[in-house]
Amino acid sequence: MRFDLALVASRLPEIFHALGITLVVWIASLIASGIFGFFVAVGRRFGPRWLDYSLGAYVELFRGTPFLIQLFLLYFGGPYVGLSLNAIPAGILGLSIYGAAYFSEIFRTGFEAVPRGHVEAGECVGMNRPQIVLRILLPEMTMLVLPASVNMSIILLKETAVMSVITVPELTLTISAIGTEFYAFVESLFLLALFYWSLVEICGWLGRVGESRLSRYRFAQS
Amino acid sequence: MTFTLFGLLLEAAIYTVVISGISIVVGFVIGMGVAAARLSTHKWLAIPARVFVSFFRGVPLLVQLLLIYNLLPAIGVNVPSVVAAVVGLSLCTAAYQAENLRGGFASVPRGMLEAADMVGLSRFQQLVRIRAPIAFRLTLPALINEAILILKASSLVSVVGVVELTRMAQDLDTSLYKPLQLYSAAGLLYFVINRAVAAAGKYAERRMAWGRA
Fold first, then answer.
1. Interface of B with A (CB under 8 A)
2. CA within 20 to 30 Å of B210's CA: A14, A18, A149, B99, which one?
3. Do A69 and B166 make contact, defined as CB atoms within 8 angstroms?
């Protein structure tokens, strides 16, 4: 087996463009799933019972099926119900819906971990629901949900590779195409693995730094 | 969705279960070894184990599968794609299971090991009779969780040409153009399988719950 990275190095601009697409689809999906997941968690906690049940069904269904199947359903099945999306928007939308199901569970456990007394104290001083969510639940649970959220962002970063199957021109698709072109599968795939490995390690490190920074806001356990 | 079509998907779902099942078991065995190496005080065991765990948890499974699928023939190992898929899934889950097991072994109460020392159990007896059973019981929920993750992740082996549930739905869709029905049915099958695994896990947890440390 020959191992020649110089072959692949000649295509660096293309690779960096693909890296950009990976980062964009990842961050877009991360933000969307964080926000959407938060609203799902709030809806389940404060909404009427039917809302809790239907959101619960959504969460269970999307956590219980593979992301690839969900993506196929959206990208290939979507046009049959009037939802024709290009690969990149379909990838972002799919990953956001998938990620939101997990994020809502992270936020839900976060809400539950905030001591009841703090919420009751808020009610006593006359705060309304949005105020309780924004001023008590959200700040107090940020520290609690941070490790799980960092973990989930890493999972989402890795899931972006699956988008290559529906032809999103991100790292995996681009680098394997280059590998096919040069007939240098192994070296290009090693390079690809190295890209993801470093991204994940950087992300994990940032998460740890953020955690130690935020830990000073941790409330005293009652 | 006709009955025959659903039958084909159901048959493919059996492949999914078999592939995932083998990978979980192989991954558990490898994971045991990796966890032992990581807990070892020997530098030459602990560091490679750490790199192994970091690599297989830091690289997307799809990339691992493509890498193994292309690497094996390149180093002269010609195996069917299903073997490459099982190797990939096993190595990936081994890294996660090693971390779970490490946590399990680390949380075996010290008092139990001291008690074992008192009654004169050897190191090996302590491992077999006390540390391993307790660690297994502690990590069972994580193992069930991992089994469900692998069942879902096994859909990715469709990309290297293994005909399991996802690939069957895909192949049928290419000739029938019924993506909504086919992928919904496939998704439903994954969901039912996962539910069954979760229920079995809950049952096993209850059975093993006696005398919990």
1. 54-55, 57-64, 66-67, 70-71, 74-75, 148, 152-156, 158-159, 166, 169-170, 173, 179-180, 183-184, 186-187, 190-191, 194-195
2. B99
3. yes
Q: What six digits make up the tokens of B102? A: 């490490």
Q: Considering its fold, how many domains does chain B have in total?
A: 1
Q: Identify which of B88, B194, B128 has the alpha carbon closest to the alpha carbon of residue A65.
A: B194
Q: Is residue B34 part of a domain?
A: yes
Judge whether B208 lies within some domain. Answer: no
Any idea what the CATH number is for the domain that residue B105 is in?
A: 1.10.3720.10
Burial class (CB in 10 A: 0-12, 13-18, 19+), B122: exposed
State the best of A22, A69, A203 to mutate against chain B, taking most chain B CBs within 10 Å.
Answer: A69
pLDDT digits (tens, 9 = 90+) for A70-80: 999 999 999 99
In tens, the pLDDT along A145-202 reads: 888 999 999 999 999 999 999 999 999 999 989 888 888 788 889 989 999 999 999 9
The terminus-to-terminus CA distance of chain A in angstroms comes to 62
Q: Give the domains, in start order, of chain A with CATH numbers.
A: 5-217 (1.10.3720.10)
